[in-house]
Amino acid sequence: MTSVPEEVPCLLMRGGTSKGAYFLAADLPAEPALRDDLLLRIMGSPDERQIDGLGGAHPLTSKVAVVSPSADPQADVDYLFLQVVVERPEVSDRQNCGNLLAGVGPFAVERGLVPAGEERTRVRIRMVNSGDHATASFPTPGGRVDYTGGARISGVPGTAAPVVIEFPAGAGELLPTGSVRDEIDGVQVTCVDNGMPTVLIAADLLKVTGYESPKDLEEDLTLADRLRRIRLEAGRLMGLGDVSDTTVPKLTLLAPPRDGGAVTTRTFIPVRCHTSIGVLGAASVAAGLRIDGSVGADLAELPPGSDRMRIEHPTGFLDIESSLGTTPEGLPTARRTAVVRTARKIFDGTVFPRAAARPQGGHR
């Protein structure tokens, strides 16, 4: 469609530890500029409270999923993730979101893009932002999505039906800089990409413990300046170019585990500190920890004989399965990644965007 609608069908869902507005691509303008302007007005940006829209005044609750049938023979649906910036009139498609990914399969069934199975449904998803694929499996007893169940994930109250998300081996380079370690701003880091460009840093090298609250870390201006310098240089080394206006790569501080997991994490997205950890960010952390000589490999406590590891974060943990292989050249590569998440339908209806700004030049 080329016109800009004044009302749009919308499904508001929690996916993992994020919340976002899910749309059919056909219900939004095809032109990115018109689409993004509409989404800013729907979510209430720019405004630190997002008081006039659906957004929740935080990056984790100012997200959009755009879903459509896929022409890819390996996928049933295409999923475009859009991060709507809270404080600025900006919509970014530079990254995936593994949390909202948990709701894409159920949304596809709700909107009739994929027929539901009698007991369970598998939806093959192409993540448009990166071209990567994932398969989501979830209960659909009697041909309807069932959001209730006993799966519990940290950062979300209560329980819900499990959504099993499996990622095939990625086609890209697990170590995008070509090195297990790089030195940036005098700090040893490991740059890894297993679905989300991520920079692994030992917390103590930045004069913090890695156990601080997100609020305390965000208020550390010296740390913020150091992280900014590291991120800018890491982006260049990872082939991402100038990342000063993007949300990738993510930076994850690592510390020894405290609660029986493999490692403790604090992740920046990129300025705010995540209250948990994103699915794809966790996938990159898990793969990075399994690389011999990587930053964090010496402080992580990996369970012997198991692909599963528990990644601790500020509000609990995330369990993820990760295994590596090697390329013919002997370089590490991701072989399998899988995670259990949950999703819940919150609201299904029509959203009415804020009115478009009038052209300058006075009143009619």
Beta-sheet strand percentage?
A: 25-35%
Helix count from the secondary structure assignment: 5
Distance between the termini: 29 Å
Which sheet architecture does the biggest sheet show? 8 strands, mixed, barrel
- Which runs of at least 5 residues are low in confidence (pLDDT < 50)? none
The overall strand count is: 16
Shape: globular
Instruction: Please give the share of residues in helix.
Output: 10-25%
> What structural class results from the helix and strand content?
alpha+beta
What is the averaged pLDDT score?
Answer: 94
Radius of gyration (CA) equals 20 Å
**What strand order characterises the main sheet?**
1-2-3-4-6-7-8-16
What order do the helices and strands follow?
Answer: EEHEEEHEEEEEEHHEEHEEE
What keywords describe this structure?
364 residues; globular; eight-stranded mixed barrel
Description:
This protein is an alpha+beta fold and 364 residues long. It has 5 helices and 16 strands. Helix content is 16%, strand content 33%. It has an 8-stranded mixed barrel with strand order 1-2-3-4-6-7-8-16. Strand 6 and strand 7 form a beta hairpin.
